[in-house]
Amino acid sequence: MQQPSRLLLVLLFCLAASSALASGGDEGAATYIVYLNPALKPSPYATHLHWHHAHLDALSVDPESHLLYSYTTAAPSAFAARLLPSHVTELRGHPAVASVHEDVLHPLHTTRSPSFLHLPPYSAPAPSADGGSSDVIVGVLDTGVWPESPSFADAGLGPVPSRWRGSCETNATDFPSSMCNRKLIGARGFFRGFGAGGRNGSSHGTTELSSPRDHDGHGTHTASTAAGAVVADASLLGYAHGTARGMAPGARVAAYKVCWRQGCFSSDILAGMEQAIEDGVDVLSLSLGGGSYPLSRDPIAVGALAATRRGIVVACSAGNSGPAPSSLVNTAPWIITVGAGTLDRNFPAYAKLGNGETHAGMSLYSGDGLGDDKFPLVYNKGIRPGSNASKLCMSGTLDASAVKGKVVLCDRGGNSRVEKGQVVKLAGGVGMVLANTAQSGEEVVADSHLLPAVAVGDKSGDAIRAYVESDAGAEVALSFAGTAVDVHPAPVVAAFSSRGPNRQVAQLLKPDVIGPGVNILAGWTGSVGPTGLTIDERRPAFNILSGTSMSCPHISGLAAFVKAAHPDWSPSAIKSALMTTAYTVDNTGSPLLDAAGANATATATPWAFGSGHVDPVKALSPGLVYDTSIDDYVAFLCTVGGASPRQVQAITGAPNATCQRKLSSPGDLNYPSFSVVFGLRKSRTTVKYHRELTNVGAAGSVYAAKVTGPPSIVVSVKPARLVFKKVGDKLRYTVAFKSTAEGGPMDAAFGWLTWSSGEQDVRSPISYTWGM
């Protein structure tokens, strides 16, 4: 039970938000983000805040009670406020208003990694070559941080960098100032959008305090993955035992709580990004996002562009909506869009059936097992005959009299995997077999279930379903084999990882890369158990989770790793290095596979893995990089459509961005990958793109172009040989793609363009589509 003082703080916070937002009679109001054109700010207004107040005053709206945020950095000249529909209509007609968009709730995308990625050992203090530079600061926008986690210990770290302008926002009972140290150097919370979002019957009430403390676990997990300290004897209840460390263990961490368990509001995300930019972070990590919006309407894209302008690398998760095509989010070209793959580690468990079949699966169950005995196995034992809900083991659907003392077969989907185990346990079941369906294929994710449980793939699931439906005396024994390493093949693209093609800009290939995102061990909150279920009383210091939420901080941390070695590199140069050195073969030497394919034997494509799986050591020496300027990004925005010049000015903060410069095509952006769109059902169509490479390798380097791909597409590169006389030289080339065959809207093909010096390979994936 919570202490009275904590409950009082919660009530005061909720009452303050409610009273502030209710003043002025705003029934029917909602939160909107209003983008103003900075070029049109009248000179009498000393600050943007004064200008924002004036707009609200003109609407007879009290700024003191209705203005949530006034942005100046992440979204130049924008503000977030509670407004009525009539206010929005009036604002949209104002000449200084570029656009108005309603606040949106974004979902979260939810220690073997260092060795799997071949990262060098870390010892503090360490030279920058091993990613240990303590001058690099990683900002994590998430559910906050659990500061007591051993992943945020500061042993061996020197003073906080003098350029750091952030702070540790404290709360007397929940987050004392002593919680921040030389590792966790900043912790802030942003709640106004979330509080306002609880209006109009869509309550987002919570018992969390208005502090940076993480009561969900997601933020602690992502922050420790990116830059957690070295922790010996780490494990989840004995699983994955070893030494845990983040990708950049010497880097500093700044946590910005912009998310709650229910999600993250755009207005809070923008406020967190603005604060992080002003605080002086070097890398931003966002394992969140929802919906596919035009770039001019995407608050994460807007904030990320402002960060990029300040030299900050921004990495975001691609989403967990795979394997559906065009399911990507966070696709702006200035963002590193991260998909997920597997590690070479799993947690084997077995379901031995009464017919003699044994099906291999995975589990993180850590309690007393069921021994070697077989128990009755049942399926679809619901309280409502004919309902498929009991197949999914949805809450309240199981017939306790039919499942008590038995193992229940549950189909994956509909509700969370761990919730299914809770449903079975509460109904009296003694165990669970969690079976994939065709949607999840052979991808099996391990969970720390509340009762003995084994998760199996679709093929095994079909066999077990057939067995239990044909044998009234079906039975099963469950066994657990701990942790296995050096698993083959690995990596495999996760089935849940969101895919291309990019629905917003077809000429931009996304995702950019994949990183480890399945069964990842990292730090955890002390507020909830590893399942996140209220009845789970276990409190481990580490937890194992899966999702692009987990792969994103791997890339954020590796960006810090590269930044430490090359502090003068731009965000686009760092992204290019990670992309062009990525690999596309697994640890058997075969092409990367896709877990969503039948029996996980389908070969993955760049729509699933982008440029490939990140290789951080090679990224330190990429040879050449595609360096993209802010002016290039502005020209890209002006080219893609959907944004007027005044909207471009509003989201870039560039008053002189008149869109006089445009690219010949969005695909002409100086990007490390290619997405070629031919005319629908037209043969002999030619598409030309231009690129510029910068030499970051040795002086006198000579590179030759090599193209691979389908024979029906003829590719020419001019010049086909590039001679870089000195470091820093920039050379341009043109590549022409000619389709000699017709293609339909569902057709796709892939290839590669590689610049090779004999010592360095600079690889770029190419996707081909027709009439998207």
Please write out the topology.
Elements: H1 4-22, E1 30-36, H2 48-58, H3 63-66, E2 67-70, E3 79-83, H4 85-92, E4 97-102, E5 105-106, H5 113-116, E6 137-142, E7 184-189, H6 192-196, H7 218-227, E8 231-236, E9 239-244, E10 252-257, E11 259-260, E12 263-265, H8 266-279, E13 283-286, H9 299-309, E14 313-317, E15 336-341, E16 345-346, E17 348-353, E18 358-362, E19 375-379, H10 400-403, E20 407-411, H11 417-426, E21 431-435, E22 453-456, H12 458-470, E23 475-480, E24 484-485, E25 492-493, E26 513-516, E27 520-523, E28 542-545, H13 548-565, H14 571-580, E29 593-594, E30 602-603, H15 606-609, H16 616-619, E31 624-625, H17 630-640, H18 645-652, E32 674-678, E33 685-695, E34 701-708, E35 713-718, E36 721-724, E37 730-739, E38 748-756, E39 761-770
Parallel strand pairs: 6-10, 6-13, 7-10, 13-14, 14-15, 15-26, 19-20, 20-21, 21-22, 25-29, 32-39
Antiparallel strand pairs: 1-3, 1-4, 2-3, 5-12, 8-9, 11-12, 16-24, 17-18, 17-23, 19-23, 27-28, 29-30, 31-33, 33-37, 34-36, 34-38, 35-37, 38-39
Helix pairs in contact: 7-13, 8-9
Q: How are the strands of the biggest sheet laid out side by side?
A: 7-10-6-13-14-15-26
As for the CATH topology of the domain at 113-121 and 131-344 and 491-552, it is: Rossmann fold
**Count of helical stretches:** 18
Largest sheet: 7 strands, parallel
Poorly predicted runs? 1-24, 126-132, 199-205
Q: For the record, what is the CATH homologous superfamily label of the domain at 113-121 and 131-344 and 491-552?
A: Peptidase S8/S53 domain
How far apart are the first and last residues' alpha carbons, in Å?
56 Å
Strand count? 39
Q: State mean pLDDT (0 to 100 scale).
A: 90
Q: Based on CA inertia axes, which overall geometry fits?
A: globular
Q: Output the radius of gyration.
A: 26 Å
Helix content: 10-25%
Per CATH, the class of the domain at 113-121 and 131-344 and 491-552 reads Alpha Beta
Tell me what the CATH architecture of the domain at 113-121 and 131-344 and 491-552 is.
3-Layer(aba) Sandwich
Fraction of residues in β-strands: 25-35%
Protein structure class? alpha/beta
